[in-house]
Amino acid sequence: MSDTTIKYEFQYSSAEHQADTAISGMWLFLATEVLFFGALFLSWIYSRHWNQAGFDAGAQQTWLAIGTINTVILLTSSFVYSVGLAFIRAGDSRRLMQCCVLAWLLGAAFLILKFGVEWPDDIEKGLLPGPGFSIEGPLRGGAQLFFVFYFFGTALHGLHMLGGLGVVGWIIRRTRRGDFSPDYHTPVTVVGLYWSFVDIVWIVLYPLIYLIGRGP
Amino acid sequence: MTARLRELSLTLLLLFVLLAIEFGMAFLPLARSLRPLILIPAALMVCVVGSVFMEARQGPVIVRLFIVAGLLWLAILLGLGSLDPLTRRDYYLDWTMIPGPAKPSATPPVPAEVR
User: Which residues of B are less than 8 Å from A75 in CB distance?
Assistant: First the structure.
């Protein structure tokens, strides 16, 4: 990275120092996010341990096809963004733009499927915990706990996705303005870290919600 | 550039293979307590995304420190948090063996809120 062509703030000794600080800062933020979601995963361990049959009865009511399609969508979105990063490193900002737009559209498709199709269907089937919960019998309590985890976990992840769409949109705008080059693309790298992290959270949530409780 | 694109494409393929394995495992006749083993392919997918898409092996050394710290504290959180449910043992009381006037006729299940 050439310091003669790239501007950097006064508190850094070089442009590379500034880039390293930004990347390290994002990793530190992601480390705190790991603990944030860790509490959610712990709640799954604790609640399922005491209510295995009820939890599994709840999991069997989830829409497996949408969960699986959404996993494929997010993995592809993360891949496409990484390809865009490779393109800007090679100096092709037009391809970066195309990749970012595609990654954004895939992220939006995830949210539409999750909150525009799956959630309304779940609510219509009476799976929202409360007095109108549709699963009756001895497994009702455990199944309700599962759906508390399901709605809370997917809502938290969805909020992170919304934030991700916001920052990917910001990268698209800056790319259109011609802000990035092979020498300067730190924001693209930093946003890519966040976008892949949101993907990682879903990789863990997917089996917890859709697969573990779904036996033969 | 081409090498990086090939690496990314192979990584996506590997992720899809792991997803297929994970999906298939969900339909194996595993005991309820063994079903969390389905998380193994998911853990591998997390490692693959972290190392290739997020390039965790590159960047400043402090990045690796943050990753290790995050995983260490996650292990402590999940480990200590799971200690109670995974090690607690329930002792069911046979009420009919206890002397006294009022006895339920059979051993009642332990209420969930007590457990």
Answer: 12, 15-16, 19, 49
